[in-house]
């Protein structure tokens, strides 16, 4: 069982999106389209994996500890993020048609939605949840979150189930198989921050 603080583990993903957004802005300022595409693909993947992992583990835990309304709000936030990231995904594949400036606006919009949600989790929701958990409970929650990341789809699926459980797991497994085929040939960049399981950047299998 993994030790550590649940908030720190989840914040790894938040910090990676923060870092990737800054790297994207720098690449955009230099008009480096190839790097912008690789960073965009990585943002899409990291946001998709993170969102599904939270829905499969953390939000179910919130519901067990009297935070059902918080979990529902977070799922609603995720729906907005997934839709925005799906638009980024489409735009990334049509970059030459849409133009880099239009694409950049979509990337920044999607990342800002993600980070607004992340800030609320970090400043309020996760500290409240962690306060309700003892050390063993937090360690189990971290393990569940890390396992869920490995099972999660790597692209956004706004129409997929979001309430955890067997239905979302089955849908996620099917989507992940399709996503992996779609990702063949796509370029990615390494992420800066790693989880406590030490898995290499971009390894979710």
UniProtKB/TrEMBL annotation:
<feature type="domain" description="Hemerythrin-like">
    <location>
        <begin position="7"/>
        <end position="129"/>
    </location>
</feature>
<protein>
    <recommendedName>
        <fullName>Hemerythrin-like domain-containing protein</fullName>
    </recommendedName>
</protein>
<feature type="compositionally biased region" description="Low complexity">
    <location>
        <begin position="164"/>
        <end position="176"/>
    </location>
</feature>
<dbReference type="InterPro" id="IPR012312">
    <property type="entry name" value="Hemerythrin-like"/>
</dbReference>
<feature type="region of interest" description="Disordered">
    <location>
        <begin position="152"/>
        <end position="178"/>
    </location>
</feature>
<dbReference type="Pfam" id="PF01814">
    <property type="entry name" value="Hemerythrin"/>
</dbReference>
């Amino acid at each position: 069982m993994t030790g550590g603080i649940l908030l720190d583990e989840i914040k790894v993903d938040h910090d990676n999106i923060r870092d990737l957004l800054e790297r994207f802005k720098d690449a955009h300022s230099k008009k480096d389209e190839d790097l912008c595409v690789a960073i965009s693909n990585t943002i899409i993947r990291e946001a998709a994996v993170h969102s599904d992992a939270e829905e499969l583990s953390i939000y179910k835990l919130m519901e067990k500890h009297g935070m059902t309304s918080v979990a529902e709000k977070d799922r609603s936030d995720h729906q907005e993020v997934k839709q925005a990231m799906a638009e980024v995904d489409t735009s990334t594949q049509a970059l030459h048609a849409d133009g880099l400036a239009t694409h950049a606006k979509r990337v920044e919009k999607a990342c800002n939605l993600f980070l607004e949600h992340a800030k609320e989790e970090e400043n309020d929701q996760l500290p409240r949840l962690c306060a309700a958990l003892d050390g063993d409970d937090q360690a189990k929650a971290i393990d569940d979150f890390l396992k869920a990341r490995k099972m999660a789809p790597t692209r956004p699926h706004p129409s997929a189930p979001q309430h955890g459980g067997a239905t979302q797991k089955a849908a996620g497994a099917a989507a992940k198989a399709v996503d992996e085929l779609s990702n063949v040939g796509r370029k990615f960049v390494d992420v800066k921050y790693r989880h406590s399981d030490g898995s290499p950047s971009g390894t979710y299998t």
